Structure formats: C-alpha cells, structure tokens
Amino acid sequence: MTALTALWLPILLSALFVFIVSSIIHMAPLWHKNDFPMLQKQDDVMNALRPMTLPPGEYMLPRPESMKEMRTPEFKEKFTRGPVLFSRRSAASPASRPSSPTAQRSGSR
C-alpha cells in the first residue's frame, strides 16, 4: 500500500486542476448573464429613489409591520396590486462609480 505522504503532490495537483476546470466551466458558458435583467426606465427608478437617501440594506415592498398585518385584506390587496419588490441597496464606492469629467480634470493637475 502506498503511503499518504507519497501522494500529497498528486492530491494537491488534482485538487488544483479540479478547481481551475470547475471555475472555467462555471464562468465560460455565461449561465448567470441574465440573472439580473435590466429594468425598463432604470434611470427613472434611480432618480425616484435617490432623494429618499436610503441607507444600505435589504428592502421589501410591500412590507407588513407584523404577521398580523400580513393577514389583513388591505395588505393582501397591496400585495396583489403590486409591484412586489425585493431589493438590496449597497453603498456606492468611489472606485465603482464612473468618474466625471470634472474629477478627471482635477486629478490630472
């Protein structure tokens, strides 16, 4: 029987190979390309939400105050009428924002 210490290199290399191949298989076919479809009028939605200065977090619309409210006809009507939205608001980092022409000019001095 072969000692485990003699097999450490083949085990490590095969694990690395499996990791790389599985990463390529996961990324290459673009399976997740359409997971988040673009909103129609997304600029209008963003402009409507921006003045609300929502802190980063997860939001649900409509959201009941309690389980009791969830059973009320008024809440059921809100939910049926829609839209129903589950959203995550994250903080925009300066590195992820497109830079403005003003920022480019001031940075080049």
Quick synopsis:
This protein is mainly α. The protein has a domain at about 55-90.
What attributes does this structure have?
109 residues, mainly alpha, elongated, disordered C terminus
Provide a descriptive summary of the structure in words:
- The chain is mainly alpha-helical.
- The protein has helices at residues 8-27, 42-49, 67-70, 73-81, 101-107, and strands at residues 57-61, 85-89.
- Strands 1-2 form a two-stranded antiparallel sheet.
- The protein is elongated.
Topology overview:
Blueprint: H1 8-27, H2 42-49, E1 57-61, H3 67-70, H4 73-81, E2 85-89, H5 101-107
Antiparallel strand pairs: 1-2
Helix content: 40-55%
The N- to C-terminal Cα distance equals 70 Å
CA radius of gyration is 25 Å
Principal-axis shape: elongated
What fraction of residues sit in β-strands?
Answer: 5-15%
Structural class: mainly alpha
H and E order:
HHEHHEH
Strand order of the largest sheet: 1-2
- Overall average residue pLDDT: 84
DSSP helical segment count: 5
Low-confidence stretches: 102-109
Characterize the biggest β-sheet.
2 strands, antiparallel
Number of strands: 2
